[in-house]
UniProtKB/TrEMBL annotation, chain A:
GO annotations of cellular component type: cytoplasm; SCF ubiquitin ligase complex
Gene name for this UniProt entry: CDC53
Origin species: Lithohypha guttulata
Keyword DNA repair found: no
Name of the protein described by the UniProt record: Cullin-1
Keyword Cell cycle: yes
Subcellular location: Cytoplasm
Keywords attached to this entry: Cell cycle, Cell division, Cytoplasm, Isopeptide bond, Ligase, Ubl conjugation, Ubl conjugation pathway
Length: 771, 245
């Protein structure tokens, strides 16, 4: 439709426009320049009314009655447009003047000018928006509803005009001034920060969403403020850091960088838009850290060597800000800890093979706790560093100078140390101290690969503690077992727990036996000659072997055990008791020594007891007779019995110093003397301990074989068919918490199981279970 | 394979049950009777002595793979033992109207084709080799004693009659195997290793197989093969004499 119908009313309309705009312009100008002086209500009402009248004036001029409603809307449209355009033209003119004045200012003066003008202009814009409210409500709204582009409400129109007619011309100079100001501040001068903030706010306000005028975007701000700001920041810090690094130490540089990063972060809160935070930090990180990361990393080893915890913390914090910044540190850290661990062990090993287990374990723990603390303090306990620490510890705990010849030395020594702690007699730690020490043991235990070896030694030593009643406390024993259970599961500690139970059950059994004995044997003519207690140990739970020497117990002992057997058989049928003579012991009183009122008491093994009791019948005995009576094998009789007796001068040999062989006669020494009244003759022989350790290692090998086979069969039984590679993988997964299996060992056991017809080969690399 | 042969024999019997045994079968039974060791006590069995005689008549030597191919053909239950049922069924199965294998002369002709097949058909060769485990091991045992293993390996892989010459111009594979196994391993040979030796031989004879590039630690080989490969590699590193590249 043509904008104006060629008719009389149209001419009237033009007159109307001219006069209306003249009135409006005068008042808009007043608002623009003299808002401070105030606008009276009369003017306000006048402008509002003129706009209203203008917009509605053309309605009756509509000619086509058919499309009355439609035409009416078009009429208003046309009239609104004219005022809108006039206002726009006015603003452009106004801003051209502003721009002309801006040219006379530079730097901070320019900023002041821009900010002042912006304030004045936007205040006026808000006022004008009110004055033209009718236009906004009707004409503008309709245009926008119809999807017309480049039509804004009156306030926004002001902003658009500002942006196009002033901002575009001046923004570059404004930003230069801003950047100069910020650089001044970075150089340590005080600046008027609020100026920058006002500029930021202005730039943000100019972000108009073309698609939705009710929304704003950060586009203008990002393009004209943020981008140059970031570039300038990057340049500044690249320049600065380069110079600083050239003249200062790395540690000083880290402090500087840290301070700069804090400063920049603070800057955002002070006068920048929060949107810039991440990008600003990225730029700073790149210039301050990434560009110097090689330098920083090179310093890492130095800091580690000198244990500079604060500086390490600083380095961690800095490098954690950049991508993949920490990976190289982790590797170095791991290598460093491993080296430290190995060195610590070397020191222990350098003084020969006879170190105390405690010394060795402490050497391991020292390194661990030292670096664990470092990880916690300097590396905030970050999980990847924890993992590096774990890897390093695992390495030096399992592969070091002490383990060089035998990889299972670590678990053996750890078990021995545990034994020393849990055994009575050693410098007994108090309860909480002991608990702490046990926790420490678990730290090392966690890293031990051959957990099965530890288990073997531990169970042997536990058996000894229990049999000899030498545990420091039941609570400590239970505590340790439950820790192991927690770490390795029920199966791992099952036997240990059963052993513990057996001892508890045996205690009750002994008191029941005493009651029974008193009742049943009271009338018996047999007087009780020895006071005895018994432990019943389940064969399948205890790591104990039957005695390896024949033995004929003395009559006194035989009578005692016969009585006990009667009692025990009455309680349980079908149980076979095997007497573990080598573990039995007792005390005998040496009534034959005349001196003193209280006789000596000898603490002896049952074997020793058997020999001593023979002297009740005869003062002097030939070796051959002793052998005949006791049936003991030579190795035991010669050293552990006769050897000990001779050395302690319980007996004397004829000929003097005679070897333990037929013809040598032994006589009871009635002149026996000792400082103590209780004399312990039941001393372990060194060589026995060594063979025991060897034996334990041997059984470990055998058990591993059995475990591997059991696991292979279990897997194959479940899967029926499986590729060789997968089988090997699964076996490793299932076994590795006990010990790290070698692929070749797994293969060997697969061979064995094939030979035994548990599994067969289907084709070259697929195996099947044979049901 | 032996199951398959039995199935065939059932068919054969059911096919001829109406009309009675065929002439070929009649002849085979007579031939079988001729070589029995102990007709009174074991009327359906030819023992070691009879088998020797029979093989001699057929021109088969005991140092030749062909005699194991014969055991394979005739489903011998153990070394040197033939049973009537297997003998009659298997020979009549391979009989054709033009060559009824019911007498020594025509059987000799058939055996000639087997000799050719051993040379030209690796799968058949492997079948005979793998089947020979049963004859190599003492009855009732799971493994073949060391010396017996080598008696067989000599035949199959030592370049003996009817076998493969495993030694190659660049690498004396069989000699190395012997050196390793007799010198280091020394264990009696189980069935899996027995079978896998054939695979090992085949691998080394593949295109480029002599470099041992096909071997990997994670492979499914029996330990003995892994060890042998390590043994060969070590030798090569030391001597370089048998460099195959």
């Amino acid at each position: 439709m043509a904008p104006v119908a060629a008719s009389n009313p149209a001419n009237r309309g033009r007159d109307n426009l001219e006069s209306t705009w003249a009135y409006l312009e005068e008042n808009v100008e007043k608002v623009m320049t003299k808002l401070r002086e105030g606008v009276d209500m009369k003017t306000y009402m006048g402008v509002y009314t003129r706009v209203h009248n203008f917009c509605t004036s053309q309605k009756p001029t509509t000619t086509s009655p058919a499309g009355a409603a439609h035409s009416a809307s078009r009429g208003a449209h046309l009239l609104g447009q004219e005022i809108y355009d006039k206002l726009g033209e006015y603003l452009s003119k106004h801003l051209a003047e502003v721009n002309a004045r801006a040219d006379t200012h530079t730097d901070e003066a320019l900023l002041s000018f821009y900010i002042r003008e912006w304030k004045r202009y936007t205040d006026a814009a808000k006022y004008n928006n009110h004055l033209f409210k009718y236009l906004n409500r009707h004409w503008v709204k309709r245009e926008m509803d119809e999807g017309k582009k480049n039509i804004y409400d009156i306030y926004t129109l002001h902003l658009v005009k500002w942006k196009d007619d002033f901002f575009q011309k001046v923004q570059e100079r404004v930003m230069q001034a801003v950047l100069k100001l910020v650089e001044k501040q970075r150089n340590g001068e005080t600046i008027e920060q609020l100026q920058v903030k006002a500029i930021v706010d202005s730039f943000v306000s100019l972000g108009l969403d073309e698609n939705d005028p009710t929304k704003s975007t950060l586009d203008v701000y990002r393009r004209y403020f943020e981008a140059p700001f970031l570039t300038a920041t990057k340049d500044y810090y690249q320049r600065e850091s380069k110079l600083f690094v050239a003249e200062n130490s790395v540690v000083e540089y880290m402090k500087k960088a840290e301070a700069r990063l804090d400063e920049e972060k603070e800057r955002v809160g002070l006068y920048l838009h929060p949107d810039i935070m991440k990008k600003l930090m990225d730029v700073c990180n790149e210039a301050l850290i990434t560009d110097h990361s090689l330098l920083l990393r090179d310093e890492f080893q130095v800091l580690l060597d000198n244990e500079r915890v604060d500086d390490l913390t600083r380095m961690y914090k800095l490098l954690s800000r950049i991508k993949d910044g920490l990976d190289p540190l982790r590797n170095r850290f791991e290598a460093h800890v491993r080296k430290a661990g190995l060195a610590s062990v070397d020191k222990v090993a350098s003084s020969g093979d006879n170190f105390e287990p405690k010394v060795y374990i402490d050497a391991l723990l020292d390194i661990h706790s030292k670096y664990q603390q470092l990880v916690t303090v300097a590396f905030t306990g970050e999980s990847e560093f924890v993992r590096s620490l774990d890897n390093a510890c695992k390495e030096f705990v399992n592969r070091n100078e002490v383990c060089k010849s035998n990889s299972s030395r670590s678990p053996e020594l750890l078990a021995k140390y545990t034994d020393q702690l849990l055994k009575k007699g050693a410098k007994a730690a108090d309860e909480s101290e002991l608990e702490d020490l046990l926790l420490q043991i678990m730290v090392v235990f966690k890293y031990i690969e051959d957990k099965d070896v530890f288990q073997k030694f531990y169970s042997r030593m536990l058996a000894k503690r229990l049999v000899n009643v030498s545990s420091v406390s039941d609570d400590a024993e239970t505590s340790m077992i439950s820790k192991l259970k927690e770490a390795c599961g029920f199966e791992y500690t099952n036997k240990l727990q059963r052993m513990f139970q057996d001892i508890q059950v045996s205690k009750d059994l002994n008191s029941a036996y005493k009651d029974w004995y008193d009742k049943v044997m009271e009338d018996s003519s047999k007087k009780r000659t020895i006071d005895s207690t018994y432990q019943i140990l389940g064969t399948s739970f205890w790591p104990l072997n039957p005695p390896n020497s024949p033995f004929s117990p003395p009559t006194e002992v035989n009578e005692a055990i016969d009585a006990f057997k009667r009692f025990y058989d009455g309680k349980h049928t079908g149980r076979k008791l095997t007497w573990l003579w080598q573990l039995c012991k007792g005390e005998v009183r040496a009534n034959y020594v005349k001196q003193g009122k209280v006789p000596y008491t000898f603490m002896v093994s049952t074997y020793q007891m058997a020999v001593l009791l023979l002297f009740n019948e005869q003062e002097t005995l030939d070796y051959a007779d002793i052998k005949e009576y006791t049936q003991l094998s030579d190795d035991i009789l010669d050293t552990a019995v006769m050897g000990v007796f001779q050395k302690a001068r319980v007996v004397t040999a004829t000929p003097e110093g005679g070897k333990p062989e037929a013809g040598t006669k032994y006589t009871l020494n009635r002149g026996f003397k000792n400082k103590k009244l209780k004399v312990n003759l039941n001393v372990p022989i060194k060589s026995e301990q060594k063979t025991e350790s060897d034996e334990t290692h041997k059984t470990v090998e055998e058990d591993r074989k059995l475990l591997l086979q059991a696991v292979i069969v279990r897997i194959m039984k479940g899967r029926k068919k499986l590729r060789h590679v997968q089988l090997v993988e699964e076996v490793i997964t299932q076994v590795k918490n006990r010990f790290p299996p070698k692929v070749s060992d797994i293969k060997k056991n697969i061979d064995i199981l094939m030979e035994k017809d548990y599994i067969e080969r289907l084709d070259n690399d697929e195996l099947a279970y044979i049901a | 394979r032996s199951k398959k042969a039995k199935l065939q024999s059932v068919e054969h019997y059911s096919g001829s049950s109406n009309s009675g045994p065929s002439p070929v079968q009649q002849n085979l039974k007579k031939l079988f009777d001729k070589y029995r060791d102990d007709p009174t006590n074991e009327p359906d069995r030819i023992g070691l002595e009879g088998t020797m005689g029979y093989f001699e008549a057929l021109g088969i030597g005991l140092d030749d793979v062909i005699f194991l191919a014969m055991f394979d053909l005739l489903d011998a239950p153990e070394m040197g033992v033939l049973t009537r049922e297997s003998f009659v069924n298997n020979w009549s199965n391979v009989s054709t109207p033009s060559n009824p294998c019911d007498n020594e002369k025509s059987q000799k002709l058939y055996i000639e084709t087997l000799r050719q097949k051993l040379k030209s058909d690796p799968a058949y060769f492997r079948q005979v080799y793998k089947g020979s485990f049963t004859y190599a091991k003492p009855a009732g045992q799971r493994v073949v004693p060391l010396e017996d293993s080598f008696a067989f390996w000599d035949m199959f892989f030592g370049g003996g009659k009817g076998g493969i010459q495993w030694n190659s111009p660049t690498t004396k594979w069989y000699d190395l195997w012997r050196e390793y196994y007799e010198g280091k391993n020394k264990r009696p040979v189980n069935k899996d290793l027995w079978n896998q030796v054939a695979e090992l031989v085949a691998k080394t004879r593949e295109e480029g197989g002599e470099t041992l590039g096909w071997w990997s630690e994670d492979g499914a080989w029996p330990t003995a093969v892994d060890e042998f490969v390590a043994f060969v590699k070590e030798k090569r590193e030391k001597g370089g004499a048998m460099d195959t590249t």
